[in-house]
Design goal:
With about 210 residues, this protein is mainly alpha-helical. The protein has six helices and two strands. About 50% of the residues lie in helices and about 5% in strands. A hairpin with a 2-residue loop joins β1 (about 1-5) and β2 (about 10-15).
Length: about 210
Amino acid sequence: MTTEKSRGKARTIKARSSDLRAPSESVAKPTDARTPDGRFAAGNRASIAARFTHTIRKALGAKTAEGEALVVARDARRVFGHVLRSLPSDAPPVRALLAVYARHQALHAYYTVKAEAAGLDTPEGLALLAVADRQSQRAERVLVTVHDLARVHAELDGRRPEAGQLPPGFVFADEPSAEPARVRVAGELPPADAPSADDTHPAAAHDQEPQQ
């Protein structure tokens, strides 16, 4: 619906066909590693990230789980999502280790609730609390490593050059330099006329006899 002024009053009218924009042309699908009908073929790399994400989801718990297993899986997914948003990096190693932490944290909550239902002062409740404590200890140790790993990857991401930029200190091979570069292969002996370390030492000048 559009508004149009008619006889001094603003009236709402339906959009005319001439006011509608022409449909934009759709972008052609890429043909790399695809079959003639557009489906992914063997050897494509577009699904690598999806397979890694599927592995992370399996570590958190399957969606097809039922009952208490489904509760643990949902709790682990919530913990994973909230903690991931607070980290400085979401690199694959960070997400893989974070999934382990989230699972331990969800199991800690599960066994804590089970202990409360059984009675905190009963033998069954105390046994469940012991399991919950072990899960919390593992979760705490993994979380510390996750934070350290996220900081390392955040620093590495900051050092990577942006698209179209060269890394610091990069020099093209065809650029002229004041001195030609000489790369010595490992195990190669220095040239015969090259000064040795003893000749270049400052104390060697005092040991040399004056020439006649």
